[in-house]
Amino acid sequence: MYSFVLLTHLLAATIWTGGHLVLALSVLPRALRQRDPQILLAFESAYEPLGMTALLVQIVTGLWMAHAMLPDVAAWFSFAPGPARLISLKLLLLGATALTALDARLRIIPDLSAATLPAMARRVVTVTVLSVAFVVVGASFRSGWLMG
Ligand code: HEM
């Protein structure tokens, strides 16, 4: 069961982190160069249903694996050396991702224009850096990096 959940977590990670890397490194530069927010909105409308489903899968499978690994939920917030620290980091990344995405969704996207494209770009880059950090922290469970 654990291996199946881990495989599902990995597949959804390829959609979340891979999708954001394509957005930040290929779609966003073109939208900024052409000062055309429609380029970004067209990608977002195609990617968002898949991306949000992948994020939900990440949260469910991640919390399940965290509980299998460390049933003491209070320890998840302790940043104590070992798997507890990595789970704390994952939850921190999740909180930062949710806040940045909500800010973009509620404050920037409704009136996205050529003038506000740089503000949207900063939020896209932030979520993308956070998505890569999720992978680094995830790989740390086996590599031992960041465990302290
Ligand atoms: C979009 C968000 C996320 C991404 C992209 C992501 C990505 C990854 C990756 C690439 C791994 C490495 C798997 C391996 O070594 O084979 C991993 C492992 C893990 N992730 Fe996530 N993750 C995300 C969210 C979460 C969340 C919210 C949690 C919950 C606390 C979580 C908990 C874990 C755990 C416990 C492992 C270790 C699995 C193991 O090595 O046995 N992840 N994650």
Question: How does this structure look, described?
Answer:
The chain is mainly alpha-helical. It has one domain. It is built from 4 helices and no strands. The chain is elongated and about 50 Å long. 20% of the residues are buried. The model has no long low-confidence stretch (mean pLDDT 97). The chain binds protoporphyrin IX containing FE.
Share of helix among residues? Answer: over 70%
The largest pleated sheet is described as: none
User: What structural class do helix, strand and pairing data support?
Assistant: mainly alpha
H and E order? HHHH
Count of distinct strands? 0
The distinct bound ligands, ions and cofactors come out as: protoporphyrin IX containing FE
Radius of gyration equals 17 Å
Specify the overall morphology.
elongated
Q: Oligomeric form of this entry?
A: single chain
**CA-to-CA gap between the ends?**
28 Å
Note the beta-strand portion. Answer: under 5%
Number of helices: 4
- Report mean pLDDT, rounded to a whole number: 97
Number of domains: 1
